[in-house]
Give the backbone structure.
Amino acid sequence: MDPAPRFSRPSSRDGLPRKSTWQSPGSAVSSGPFVSNEESLMPISPNQGSTGGGTLVTVTGTNLSGTTAVTFGAKPATSVTNVSPTQVTAVSPSGAGSVGVTVTTAGGTSNPIPFFYVGAPFKSSLAPASGPLAGGNTVTINGVGLATATGVSFGANTATPTVVSDTQLNVTVPAGAAPGPVGVSVTTAGGTNNGLSYTYVDVPTVTTVTPASGSTSGGTGVTITGTNLGTTESVTFGGNPAPFSLVNSTTISAVTPPGAAGAVDVEVTNPAGSDTAVGAFTYVAAPGI
């Protein structure tokens, strides 16, 4: 019986692995498949994917013509396609952790190269949860499994995040199509997860301030009407902050702070910006005898 064929790996002066060769004892070197495991060559791309499988990968090496199987650990890949003598594509099966990927041809089986299974991301919070319709502001997303994030979608619009850690992302919000809430999803090597919401806000407008006058000592209850008031963050009278409550997207109830006699501007601010009603409220001094 002929001895079983084996892989031989020539040594190198720099210590890096070199091309493996498929050889039977007593015979000349034959051309079995070879997939380099030198990291600089990135022989499998991507080298990580979802634990649920379904990741299309490209394996690069030599003598890959006639590939009959690509195996991830003990599991065979599907949709194996010979692209060229140096390239094969396949779809990963389900798995977990780190596994070796091998390519099999009539000449034998290649050395394994590592592939890493990644779980789907989980998002726990997003802040701030609203911002201008024009986008451009930065949002922080917290969760787990975020280290391989490649995209964050706000509704139909996607942005590329900055990975801070496995538990945190920063992302610049893209422009929205219209004011209102949209779903937020994060895509990583492990898949896509959604479940958070972000609200696009348009700049507020102030239409009326009623009543239009009150005591310099403050304490006058006023009603402010306009548009896009539902996410109001502050109301000021002559630059002085006033306590307020949101009635709905078109109405705010506020109480005037103390102020000097005369007309002052009323300003309403939300995450998208501010609107000022010039001279919309007049402080009136109490009569003196």
